[in-house]
Amino acid sequence: MKKVLIAAFAAALLAPVAAETIRMRDGTYHSGEVVSSDDEIVRIRFAENGLELDLKWDQLAGGEAQRLKARSAMEKASRFLMAGEVIYTTRNETLEGIVLEENADKLKMKTAKGTKDVNIKSIARREKTQINALSVYTPDELYASKSPLYKLDTASGNFDLGDLCLAISLFAKAKEHFAKTLELDATWKSRVDPRMAKAEAGIREAEAAAMMKEAEELTAKDKLEEAVAKYKEIVEKYPGTAAATKAAELANKGEGNVTALKSEQKKEADKKRAKAYYDEMKSLVGKAVAAKLTFQQLKDYVEKTMTGEILDKLAEREKADRKQFEADWRSRELDDWKQASYGEGSWMMEPDQLAIEKSTNLDDIRNKNKNAQLITDLKAAAAAERKLVDAWWTKQTTTVKINWLSAYAAEKTMLTKPPDHAPCSKCAGKGILGATALCMRCLGIGQDRVISYK
Length: 454
Fold this sequence. Notes:
Strand order of the largest sheet: 8-7-6-5-9
Order of helices and strands: EEEEHEEEEEHHHHHHHHHEHHHHHEEEE
Number of strands: 14
Helix content: 40-55%
Oligomer: single chain
Number of domains: 4
Structural class: alpha+beta
Shape: globular
Radius of gyration: 29 Å
Distance between the termini: 47 Å
């Protein structure tokens, strides 16, 4: 079997850049390199004497500070990017990850859902691209791969790795590296202290969240007295955390009514799951559009495959039983409705009745009778355009396609209200432009279809 060698991660991450010329506000020039930076301070190692100094950004020339800040932002954004692949299968499945092994018959791919075997014959298309490492690797795996890239015998190396740990919520590791930073160089204290505080707060939040999960499990088992005691313990041990705020509410409700407590717990879980579901739906719609499938393939994917993919991923993320997770999702209780509009493609989901046919105003009725032939011609023109769905789709921008498919996914897979309508932005709801021209945006229906969903 042919092994495909994959670098664990792209190495363009926060490693110090080569020496360069840096212009100061006073007009002088120095040779040095940026060791690290944040919103207020940039640490520079000067080539002429090897000294590392913390400078405020306004000590650099304006253009220079702007250049270095922009580069720093790009480097931080790239920390989680790595070389990967997106594979589209003939079953309308989209896989994103790292190919570990491949031969003539199949390949093994590491994805966010685990390692998958893919039959080569089932692949419709594959693309090499940059992917988010956190969508494939756990924070611990990411840390194990990234940490060798940092010079951990230096204060700057530990500081930058601590920063990375903060970004991926490895708060205990972050605390270790910030402590090592100060051990190696106490002059970093002013920059380490606020990050150390974030790390310690993260540790407290994580510990409180873990205890919260224990309390929720007790509630689910109707062990009310133990659950309330656990909620009170969270409030006492972790004041000020998000879990403590919620635990205080649940403790009060639980002391009087286990049903109310369980209902509140489910509503909270439903809200979190809904947010995760919406995010996954948006991501998959974007990937499906980028895959350049036919319009019918996209619709089939939304109707037959997408919901299963989302529920698989969310159940895996929560380490929950897949069937029970789906049952809980279908019985969700949500108060907030979200909206999606089909926009200029609303005519595909609406009857072919022209806006000017719908009015019951007496003047409009007279006009309809007077302009019967015009209406017949407009309907014929609209009907002809309605047959050109695929041609219309290929001409649309990515944004229009994503908006349309998002609305379709909402209407076909979510809990919805009866559709609302907004006036067409081109013809202001009239369906015609001027006296005789068909509005080609709405094809005469004069409105955009809007879906409220949850």
